[in-house]
Design a protein that fits this description.
alpha+beta, 4 strands
């Protein structure tokens, strides 16, 4: 899938800077090509939980952000993320004291 389509699916208005950022994230995410579709599916599934996948501005990773941390929706979002990680063999890292995960890459 091309960068513009991915950015659009994630809710961004594609431009050169965002395309470069996405390219850097893809290069920094082992097995990205194997998990791209699953990441986009996760983004769609999380919308009902007030959560989403986005580009990180601080690292070359995609991040998963949960916007309603104290709700039942957040618990469900954490469960969806855990299921996604286990089912598709994707390493994720939860940031301490934040409702944010980094997608680190595919693992065997």
């Amino acid at each position: 899938m091309d960068a513009e389509a991915i950015l659009t699916q994630l809710g961004y208005a594609p431009n050169d800077a965002l395309k470069k950022q996405l390219h850097d994230i893809q290069k920094n995410t082992p097995g990205y090509d194997k998990i791209e579709k699953h990441i986009l599916d996760l983004h769609e599934h999380l919308k009902v939980n007030n959560a989403y996948v986005a580009l990180s501005n601080t690292t070359n990773h995609l991040k998963i952000k949960i916007d309603s941390p104290t709700s039942a929706l957040a618990e469900e979002a954490h469960e969806k993320i855990r299921h996604f990680s286990e089912r598709y063999k994707v390493s994720v890292e939860k940031l301490q004291n934040k409702e944010t995960y980094y997608i680190l890459g595919f693992h065997h």
